[in-house]
Amino acid sequence: MFELDAAVTHAINGLAERSAVVDFLMIWVSSIGVPLLVLAVAGQWWRQAERPHTRHALVAAGLSFLLGVALNQLILLFVHRMRPYDSGATHVLIAPSADPSFPSDHATATFAIAAAFLLHGMRRVGLGFLAAAALVTFSRVYIGTRYASDVLGGALTGVIAAFAVRAVYRQDTRIDRLVTGIL
């Protein structure tokens, strides 16, 4: 299985350094993608269409993001995977990181947001966030900081977190009305 993971990772990372423009865009997407998605989510707080439902989905996306990253911290207690550039599987386009490779927090965060919107019936917005999540996670492998399985694992963690939040955080409960009624 590792051979397949390394081969896919190497194939994606092998696209790097062929175009300075694409390299710049991938580095930019990798570094600013998550903050831009968070701003895009937050900016919808004042959206007028279906305001209570939209706000509920926004809170669910935020909770999914936080739960997913918390789950990653639990996983890191047991899994200490070396970064692909440390093992010679990739060449890195940015400064190396000292933290373990699996799972990818970028993938967890972006897929948690996309899954939360999709699970709350906001298909159009959810698909937009899903496309952005795919681009951010692809960029992480492209620039050489993650194995393909690191981003797949992170995406899975994000989706699991969104399902867990969906199961627990219900619309029109007292707490939901309190939180979504702010501003």
From TrEMBL:
<protein>
    <submittedName>
        <fullName>Phosphatase PAP2 family protein</fullName>
    </submittedName>
</protein>
<feature type="domain" description="Phosphatidic acid phosphatase type 2/haloperoxidase">
    <location>
        <begin position="56"/>
        <end position="166"/>
    </location>
</feature>
<dbReference type="Pfam" id="PF01569">
    <property type="entry name" value="PAP2"/>
</dbReference>
<dbReference type="InterPro" id="IPR000326">
    <property type="entry name" value="PAP2/HPO"/>
</dbReference>
<feature type="transmembrane region" description="Helical">
    <location>
        <begin position="126"/>
        <end position="145"/>
    </location>
</feature>
<dbReference type="InterPro" id="IPR036938">
    <property type="entry name" value="PAP2/HPO_sf"/>
</dbReference>
<feature type="transmembrane region" description="Helical">
    <location>
        <begin position="25"/>
        <end position="46"/>
    </location>
</feature>
<keyword id="KW-0472">Membrane</keyword>
<keyword id="KW-1133">Transmembrane helix</keyword>
<feature type="transmembrane region" description="Helical">
    <location>
        <begin position="151"/>
        <end position="169"/>
    </location>
</feature>
<feature type="transmembrane region" description="Helical">
    <location>
        <begin position="58"/>
        <end position="80"/>
    </location>
</feature>
<keyword id="KW-0812">Transmembrane</keyword>
